[in-house]
Write a structure and sequence with these properties.
This protein is α+β, with helices and mostly antiparallel strands and 696 residues long. Helix content is 41%, strand content 19%. It has a 7-stranded mixed beta sheet with strand order 10-9-8-18-19-20-21, with helices on one face. Strands 11-12-13-14-16-15-17 form a 7-stranded mixed beta sheet, covered by helices on one side. It is elongated. Residues 84-112 have a biased composition (Low complexity).
């Protein structure tokens, strides 16, 4: 009679016992010592695991085990179900049965006598991925890993995902571990200490600080080792993953996305829930893009009662450090509302925030949004907007529990304390209606220049402005030391004939009346613009409008002043004799106006980018306008300030040499002309925005 494979292995093992005993009794002491040495040598030569094992791509009927070893080896996995762990009533209460083994339980602790099954890797290697298939749903299995015949990992256990008819599910979400290894480890240990172990872990990206550095991934996997050996993880891309190939080497996610998005966007089911992971950092998500078309079809195809979507950048985030991504909000929220998405999980912000988003109609409940980026990264300041229900700066993970039609969530700190408990129930068409009372609506936070300084974008912008403004005149001061040596006068010749006014031989320049007339006309024009600036038509009569009008008026005055200064500089270089006093005053006025314009621009930018500000309306109607006009304008607008300060410094510092040194005069003229050219870009963009007001 031919025995099944498992029984043959058991019979062979039983037959080997008396043979081994007889052989052992016959060994002499010297031979026994040599045998022990050989065994020790073989054990020492066996490969050692340097990563894992960790679970990937889990389903109700299988999972994948991955690990790495320090040397190439032949690997195998032994596994078997633990007695009494199959949840035949998995659609019931979801409580852990008394006979159910917890992750990490061993055969001896459960009394199982089920024989091991073995799956061997097809060849030798240092990286292994073995798929276990044909498993029972909602069942706990124990496993061990062997390399070169030696045990490399013992006592592992995992539980397959619940079947479609299940009504209960427990899972956790975390994001943004980065280089916070100590708090990251504390969060992981708290997840392992959960009374009801999670069935899966969702990760919102930024697992390490630099995704292109292998040693940081080694640290991340070492911190996560005990958790990932028991619970499968489903990650999505964050900006700190840097779109590196290492991410796709480390993780094996469902391959149901499009060919272009393999490993970037995907979906999977677990019990009553459908999960969707997106790449909003490195892939297009606009309507009509491959990812958007796939997402729309996937949401339409699912039949699960709960649908969860997770990705990195948060469309709702009141933190001044990383504000709401309004582009993603405008693209994704209408689609999510149409398809009754239950909740959305995001990272990027290193804090916790629960928000209520928009509604499909006034009669429908608001959509639920989370930012849960407290996985270990440096904490970031919290804010508060009308959509904010709860926000807190703390290391944490988000626990999500499904019990039939009831969903509960809570943030969990490393010490085990919970915060922001929330409960919702499914209603008609599987939409989640909050049971927890909504938080009182907070007034929209008034953005200030200080908020901009606190943000990384504002700190970089202001730092550059200060550095460039100070460095430009100091650099020119070193490059142009005082003229102590004889110079060739202008016009050329050994001497220069003194005039009636030795200090300024061209003080009676005939062009001065024209300059005065132009200055008076410009002042009248500015007064008219100040009173009738069309910018107020879009933003209304408020403090923001006044500041915006002042900024536009100042930019106009700056442009006219720099044009006058450039004309004087050209006349100076062409030895046509403008007044040095007027040139000095004009360049000083241009520098002052440029600095004031930058300050007003920063104040306006802080109000522009805040949630609920003009950026919100602009991105909803024409997001490309924001990118092309405002973002480029903000960067180009900082250049006139250091150039104007440098020009004013040179004219003041070397006023005695400008008449005599032709090269110095030409340098001043070139700088002044450059200011005009640089200023035309942000000024022209601002004028375009003004004209587009009626269209927007």
């Amino acid at each position: 009679m031919r025995l099944p494979p498992l029984k043959r292995r058991r019979v062979a093992a039983m037959a080997a016992v008396p043979l081994a005993a007889t052989a052992g009794a016959a060994l002499r002491p010297a031979e026994e010592a040599q045998a022990q040495t050989a065994v020790a040598t073989r054990a020492a030569a066996a490969a050692r695991l340097t990563r894992g094992p960790y679970l990937q791509n889990a389903t109700a009927n299988g999972t994948m085990l991955l690990w790495r070893s320090d040397t190439p080896s032949a690997a195998a996995v032994d596994f078997r179900p633990l007695r009494g762990t199959q949840a035949s009533g998995s659609a019931g209460t979801g409580a852990t049965p008394a006979t159910q083994a917890t992750p990490g339980a061993t055969a001896s602790s459960t009394g199982t006598d089920v024989p091991w099954e073995t799956i061997a890797a097809p060849g030798r290697g240092a990286s292994h991925a073995i798929t276990l298939s044909g498993l029972e749903p909602d069942t706990t299995y124990e496993y061990r890993v062997r390399v070169d015949g030696q045990s490399a990992f013992e006592g592992g256990a995992f539980r397959t995902l619940p079947p479609p008819e299940a009504e209960d599910l427990d899972f956790v979400f975390m994001a943004d571990n980065q280089t916070g290894h100590v708090p990251h480890g504390e969060v992981v240990r708290r997840i392992l200490a959960e009374r009801t172990p999670p069935r899966l872990v969702l990760h919102g990206g930024d697992q390490c600080e630099n995704g292109s550095r292998p040693e940081q991934w080694d640290q991340w996997f070492q911190t996560e080792r005990d958790l990932l050996a028991r619970v499968p993880i489903f990650p999505c891309l964050g900006n700190h993953e840097e779109n590196t190939p290492l991410f796709f080497e480390h993780f094996r996610v469902p391959a149901n996305g499009t060919s272009a998005g393999r490993g970037r966007w995907y979906s999977f089911d677990a019990g009553p829930a459908h999960f969707v992971a997106l790449d909003v950092v490195f892939s297009e998500i606009e309507p009509g893009s491959p990812q958007y078309r796939w997402l729309e079809a996937d949401l339409q195809r699912t039949d699960r009662r709960y649908t969860f979507v997770y990705f990195h950048y948060p469309p709702y985030n009141s933190s001044p450090h990383h504000s709401s991504n309004l582009r993603l909000r405008g693209i994704l929220e209408p689609l999510f509302l149409r398809h009754a998405v239950t909740a959305v999980f995001n990272g990027h912000g290193h804090l916790y925030e629960r928000a209520f988003g928009d509604r499909l109609t006034p009669a429908h409940p608001p959509m639920l949004w989370y930012v849960a980026g407290g996985g270990g990264g440096v904490p970031q300041p919290a804010g508060r907007q009308p959509f904010t229900q709860h926000t807190e700066v703390t290391f944490h993970f988000l626990r999500v529990t499904i019990r039939g039609e009831r969903l509960t969530t809570a943030g969990v700190r490393p010490d085990g304390t919970e915060f922001d408990p929330f409960e919702g129930r499914l209603i008609a068409d599987n939409r989640l209606a909050p049971v927890t009372a909504p938080a009182p609506a907070a007034p929209a936070a008034k953005a200030t220049a200080l908020d901009l300084v606190r943000s990384p974008r504002g700190a970089l912008l202001l730092g550059y402005q200060a550095l460039a403004t100070v460095a430009a005149p100091l650099g020119l001061s070193f490059a142009l030391p005082g003229r102590q040596r004889p110079v060739v006068p202008v016009p050329s010749g050994p001497t220069h004939a003194p005039s009636v006014r030795p200090d300024d031989p061209y003080a009676d320049w005939r062009g001065l009346p024209v300059v005065r007339l132009a200055g008076g006309a410009m002042a009248l024009v500015l007064l008219v613009v100040l009173a009738t600036a069309p910018l107020r038509w879009l933003f209304g009569h408020d403090a923001y409008t006044v500041t915006l009008t002042l900024h536009a008026t100042l930019a106009t005055a700056l442009l006219l002043t720099t044009v006058m200064a450039a004309n004087m500089g050209y006349r100076l270089a062409a030895h046509r004799g403008p007044s040095l006093r007027w040139l000095n005053g004009t360049t000083a006025a241009a520098a002052a106006m440029a600095l004031l314009s930058v300050v007003l621009g920063d104040v306006l930018y802080a109000g522009y980018v805040k949630s609920g500000g003009p950026l919100d309306e602009l991105v909803r109607k024409a997001s490309e306008i924001h990118t092309v006009l405002f973002e480029f304008k903000a960067r180009a607008g900082v250049l006139p300030a250091p150039l104007s300060v440098a020009a004013a410094f040179v004219v003041w510092r070397y006023r005695d040499d400008l008449r005599r040194d032709r090269h110095l005069a030409q340098l001043v003229a070139l700088v002044l002309m450059l200011i005009v050219l640089v200023l035309l870009a942000p000024y022209g963009l601002g004028a375009i925005v003004t004209r587009l007001r009626g269209i927007l």
